Amino acid sequence: MTTQGAQLEGAYGFALGDSWMASPLAGIKATQVSRNGYTETAGATFPITYNAVNQSATTAYAGAKVMGYILPKVSIGASAGVEQDISSNIDNYSGSIYYLGGFSIAAPTIQRTRAFVGANTDYWIEKNQRVSLGVYYNQQSLNTSNGVTAVLNYTVGL
């Protein structure tokens, strides 16, 4: 399986008082996921073969971020927006199983417009060091499930 992607985002910050900032943002991203075909050979009672599958999307998005300090070393932030597929494609899934024959499963319907939101907090250890915790929610493009991601990281700058 091979995955490639690229993203370009622009934002502009507006001061909201001494310690808060709002940033409208817009961007575009492109993704390509390719899975090679596969054939079982030795040792399988019902060997399976499936064909390669490719998925690609070009997506534009827009939203806003708000960030501010609640204590001298603690900042919080929130973001929200919507993304829209400009183009997207996914192949059908097909193959065959020995004795049982071929199969083909239609690609799922792509949800082209999706919402996203996020919240994060940062603890600034020093000017160039911080620990961050973020929680992010987004609607998925290929099913009715929703994605929730939590990220904890430590950042050191030079």
Explain what you see.
With 158 residues, the chain is mainly β. It is 0% helix and 73% strand. It has no helices and 12 strands. The chain has strands spanning 2-11, 14-15, 20-35, 38-39, 48-50, 53-71, 74-90, 93-97, 101-105, 113-126, 129-139, 146-156. The strands form 2 sheets. Strands 1, 2, 3, 6, 7, 10, 11 and 12 form an 8-stranded antiparallel β-sheet that branches. A 4-stranded antiparallel β-sheet has the order 4-5-8-9, with no helix packed on it. A hairpin with a 2-residue loop joins strand 10 (113-126) and strand 11 (129-139). The protein is elongated and about 70 Å long. The model has no long low-confidence stretch (mean pLDDT 93).
Rg, Cα atoms, Å: 22 Å
Molecular shape: elongated
- What is the number of strand segments? 12
Q: How far is it from the N-terminal to the C-terminal residue, by CA? A: 35 Å
Helix content: under 10%
Q: How would a textbook summarize the main sheet?
A: 8 strands, antiparallel
Element-level helix/strand string: EEEEEEEEEEEE
Average pLDDT, all residues: 93
Count the DSSP helices. Answer: 0
Poorly predicted segments: none
Strand composition percent: over 45%
Could you outline the blueprint of secondary structure elements for this entry?
Layout: E1 2-11, E2 14-15, E3 20-35, E4 38-39, E5 48-50, E6 53-71, E7 74-90, E8 93-97, E9 101-105, E10 113-126, E11 129-139, E12 146-156
Antiparallel strand pairs: 1-3, 2-3, 3-6, 4-5, 5-8, 6-7, 7-10, 8-9, 10-11, 11-12
